[in-house]
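Q: How would the structure tokens look for this protein?
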Amino acid sequence: MNPSIPKEIVIQIFTWLPVKSIMRFKCVTKFLNSLISESYFTDIHTTHSMTRLGGRKYFLDGSEFYCTSDQEREDVKSSASGVVQIQSFDELPFYIPVGSNLSCANGLFCIQKPAAILNPSTGHVRFLPKLNDNLSMLYYWLGFEPEENKYKVLLTRTTISKPYLKHRVFTLGIDESWRETQSFPYHVMSKHGICINGVIYMFVFHDELLAIDAFDLKTESSKLIVLKNASKWWYYELIEVKGQLAIIDYEKWSREYIHLRVLGQIQKEEEWESHIIHYPSMWKHIPPHVISDVILSCMACDGQILFILNLESGILCSCYDVTRQSWRKIETKGLPTNHRIKRIYSYVETLVM
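A: Here is the predicted structure in token form.
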């Protein structure tokens, strides 16, 4: 390192660099190699990535592939027509078994088989302790607790013989084995969960009723949110809208709208705010029977919900702004052809792990 440049300036410069560049520079000096492992540096770098161009990414879970892409911003020409272009997609530098269920929290991902934590920004993979249990269905959910700045993995075990849910927790960087917490008379569903503000939400069945298990990562305790008049659960998906839990309901596809329900304070009696999302004009040319048969993936970020429709002609991406109640089109280039997208995630680059 050049002695004429103050160390504080060097650190400040590196907090604004992309992760890929930092990983290249870490081999230059011992100082830079040790710097990226310091928590204060990684925290500042993650904060800068939220606003830095290229710091926000998409992670695409495809039928036969996984890849990442920058979240391109609208330019002057694009904003006028409501079009955002994603120019290219990058293949991951490591292998993920096709069909693995994923969960995402604060830039890290958890895969089910084999159970592991991965950082798509650095390419690092860390395998979780193996649990020898061939008689239960195991589901792994990754969460981030912002107050304690800790990543935790929630392991739910449902016995095949009886619908009984057992919780175990593993804290990254601290625990060496799973810690058993609570057991509940629930049956967990094999649908995607989500972590919001230190709480992991997942669909469960309780007394033959559809509910949401809200697991607080700080207290490591659960709260049950019962959903009334929710018989057709296969139409539901959990997403985050402006830091709040929300449910997307696809049941009304044939009526040209989607039902969005946003949850208020879970400490009080649960109140859901209802929104009706009408189809955008770009969907009008698609026959209703075709829309009802496509695989639709949605992801919410900063009050915007990204929808992906897998059609025979290709992939149609549309973004809905909940606040403005408006749609815009997202054009993709460089996406692998002849593949379907099962799900898309939004994440911020991080050096953690």
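The first strand starts at residue 56 and ends at 62.

Residues 39-49 form the longest helix (11 residues).

Upvote if useful.
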